[in-house]
């Protein structure tokens, strides 16, 4: 029993020595929505604000536009499986045709 306990403790100590992690804190609020295999983090800083990409390794942060969730608009972002594409919602300006509008005639 002592040998088994000693062996298990030794094995656990060796395994925990090889396990390492990383925890990086961004100084400002950043709501994370997705992480790519390359370590890029997508998210936003304010409700209905633009999406941003944060690279924690290089400590770079850049805005990519779009409509983050909040105030009745926007939605989440998602990286593609290969990490190349990022999808999300965006504001667009679209001209709407008024050809369908009813014309009210006064002398009919």
Query: Per DSSP, what share of the residues sits in E-state strands of 2 or more residues?
Result: 15-25%
Number of helices: 1
Sequence of secondary-structure elements? HEEEEEE
Main sheet overview: 4 strands, antiparallel
Low-confidence spans: pLDDT under 50, at least 5 residues? Answer: none
Please report the distance between the alpha carbons of the first and last residues. 103 Å
Would you tell me the structural class of the helices and strands?
alpha+beta
Spatial sequence of strands, sheet with the most strands: 1-2-3-4
Number of strands: 6
| Shape verdict | elongated
Rounded mean pLDDT score: 81
| Proportion of residues in helical segments | 10-25%
Alpha carbon gyration radius:
26 Å
Secondary structure blueprint with pairings:
Elements: H1 2-18, E1 31-35, E2 41-44, E3 51-55, E4 60-65, E5 78-79, E6 86-87
Antiparallel strand pairs: 1-2, 2-3, 3-4, 5-6
